[in-house]
Amino acid sequence: MARVLVGVKRVIDYAVKVRVKPDKKGVVTQGVKHSMNPFDEIAVEEAVKLKEKKLASEIIAVSVGPAQSQEVIRTALAMGADRGVHVEVSGDEYELLQPVHVSKILAKLALDEKADLVILGKQAIDDDANQTAQMTAAVLDWPQGTFCNKVEKTDAGLTISREIDGGLETIKTKIPAVLSADLRLNTPRYATLPNIMKAKKKPLKKVTAKDLGVDTTPRIEIISVEDPPVRQAGALVADVDALVAKLKEGGHI
Ligand code: AMP
């Protein structure tokens, strides 16, 4: 029976139109709806499924971030996680927190909590880094199964089907291991109202990165954040000759 650590990041909700701050040093986060990173919902769901199949004994949801990160831990608890760990990092330190810092934090917690599996999302939709699972596996020196499409427990460990360019790859790995959840791994359940109420009573521990011995001093400086270029309006042409003439005029052919 495995103990599973799941990473849940609080990100700007996928449906929000993100705006760049006037000083171009980041994006507006104040007063903006945040939610659990969508791939992390899939990671939590996979852990809960393992527990339902009696293949996992306990699920610990971890979020690194400001005080509000506890909201996404509560969501994970309502989905079926047993307890939460909030690693508080806020202000400028959080704005410049990088996957390498989060990986060291998750690796330390995985060892402290004697986890057998770490399940993360394949990518956080705010930084689009796709690095944390890989680096967590490297810090722990554990095998990794990234972009998981299917995970099956076997006597020897896990058989994992991975999404790769144009197809699927099947690999076997022993546990302990680090996995990252891809979109088609499962369909996450909704947290029901009774479970949201129950989640309020589940244990949630708060620690700092310093408590875990991880230095989160920023390693980068953000020079500038820009909006994508505005798309130019299209033009209607009367016929193919006019189209060809226009393309030539624009130097496209
Ligand atoms: P990234 O490498 O930043 O694209 O993130 C990949 C995955 O790592 C996410 O889907 C989360 O599962 C986990 N992760 C990244 N940042 C955090 C965080 N601040 N707190 C908890 N989990 C995180």
From TrEMBL:
The keyword Mitochondrion applies. It is found in: Mitochondrion matrix. Heterodimer of an alpha and a beta subunit. Heterodimer composed of ETFA and ETFB. Identified in a complex that contains ETFA, ETFB and ETFRF1. Interacts with ACADM. Keywords: Electron transport, Mitochondrion, Transport. It comes from Drosophila lebanonensis (Fruit fly). SMART domains: ETF (SM00893). InterPro entries: ET-Flavoprotein_bsu_CS (IPR000049), ETF_a/b_N (IPR014730), ETF_b (IPR012255), ETF_beta_N (IPR033948), Rossmann-like_a/b/a_fold (IPR014729). This is Electron transfer flavoprotein subunit beta. GO terms for molecular function: electron transfer activity. The keyword Ion transport does not apply. Belongs to the ETF beta-subunit/FixA family. Heterodimeric electron transfer flavoprotein that accepts electrons from several mitochondrial dehydrogenases, including acyl-CoA dehydrogenases, glutaryl-CoA and sarcosine dehydrogenase. It transfers the electrons to the main mitochondrial respiratory chain via ETF-ubiquinone oxidoreductase. Required for normal mitochondrial fatty acid oxidation and normal amino acid metabolism. ETFB binds an AMP molecule that probably has a purely structural role. The electron transfer flavoprotein serves as a specific electron acceptor for several dehydrogenases, including five acyl-CoA dehydrogenases, glutaryl-CoA and sarcosine dehydrogenase. It transfers the electrons to the main mitochondrial respiratory chain via ETF-ubiquinone oxidoreductase (ETF dehydrogenase).
